[in-house]
Amino acid sequence: VTATLTEHAEAFAAELTETFHGVLGDTCPAFVAEASPNKRRKTRVAVHTEDNSSVRLSVDGSHCLSLLVSFDCEWDTPGTYLAVRNAKFHVLTADEKGAPLFRYEFTDSGGRVPAAHLHVHAHRDEMLFALFRGGHGKPKVRAEAVEGRSPRAEPRLSDVHFPLGGIRMRPSIEDFLQMLRFEFGIDVEQGFQDVLNEGRARWRRRQIGASVRDAPAVAARVLREMGFEVREPESGCPPERTERLYQI
Amino acid sequence: MRHEREGSVVMTTVLTPTVDDLRRERESLVDSLRLAEDELRTRAEDFLLSAEETRVLRRLDQIDYLLGED
After folding, report:
1. Chain A interface mutation, best of B65, B67, B70, highest count of A Cβ atoms under 10 Å
2. Could you report the per-residue pLDDT of A12-41, keeping only the tens digit for each?
3. Low-confidence spans in chain A with pLDDT less than 70
4. What ipTM was predicted for this assembly?
5. Helix (H, G, I), strand (E, B), or coil: what is residue A208?
6. What is the model's pLDDT at position A40?
7. Following DSSP, what letter does each residue of A98-126 receive, concatenated?
8. Phi, psi (deg, nearest 5) at residue B28
9. Each residue's pLDDT tens digit, B17-69
10. Whole-angstrom Cα distance, residue B70 to residue B68?
11. Among the residues of chain A, which ranges form H helices?
12. Which residues in A lie closer than 8 A to residue B68 (C-beta atoms)?
């Protein structure tokens, strides 16, 4: 029996709960899968924390940061695997007021911004100056904004999309949680590293599988080099999905 | 539903709202705001929302996504 998208999303939500509980403890909100009721949109599921609660991050028992995590999920193009279309990991101050400190985001829209990207909410004059220098593309738009010829008149460092490896090689939630532990010293459960390692390995195996589908001839060549016998299908080697390989 | 892995058991909730449920929730959330939704979104671009307003906006976006109205 083929699993439905909701069942895939449910399993994904369970993995997230297990990871977050294993790293941050059982007081962390569980993840739920929320299916679209729209018949034309049956292929959409939102995976988020219960009641969209933020995840409290503590240092020495004191709530010091808040984390917001959510995923929008759909089928992949062949309709075989669950694909995350949008993901947000936002780190905020404990009171959750004002701008986040930084945001990891992912959007698989094939648009004009890097699919996986980081926003840093900080300010430095030299950075702003650099963002105006270009004279074409985004710098030109920013300059026009300052002159009042475009509605957005306040260019900021946080508007910059720092690319993070594209669709396949983007960081996992485990990388993100580990960074929070290493850089901010957030409280973690005993055995958190094993939980992160297992989750990261699971993520990377999936991404390797997806990468093989993007470039099957490369996968076949590497396997042959390793001594495997690899036969092409009668219909020939599937073409590379160059749109995936090209996409920032 | 229960998911078991290596001895641990994780209970996962699956929410299956109807279109009416989501529309009603959306209406209720918008009514609870002291600002018009457009104004809320404009202020959100500049990160001028309270924690509660941010939560409401996030939920509105989720509802729109599930309704296919994003």
Report:
1. B65
2. 999 999 999 999 999 999 999 999 987 665
3. 1-2, 39-42, 151-154
4. 0.86
5. helix
6. 62
7. SS-SEEEEEE-S--SS-SEEEEE----HH
8. -65, -40
9. 999 999 999 999 999 998 999 999 999 988 889 888 999 999 999 999 999 98
10. 6
11. 5-24, 125-133, 137-146, 173-184, 192-214, 216-225, 242-246
12. 36, 38, 40-41, 44
Integer angstrom CA distances of residue A109 from A33, A80, A135: 21, 19, 27
Report the predicted TM-score, pTM, of the whole model to 2 decimal places.
0.90
Instruction: Report the alpha-carbon distance of residue A43 to residue A201 in Å, rounded.
Output: 27
Compute the distance between CA of residue A238 and CA of residue A111 in angstroms, rounded to an integer.
25
Q: Do B10 and A41 touch (CB under 8 A)?
A: no
The residue among A96, A109, A194, A202 with the most chain B CBs within 10 A of its CB, best to mutate, is A96
Closest CA to A166 of A222, A226, A109: A109
A35 touches chain B (CB under 8 A): yes
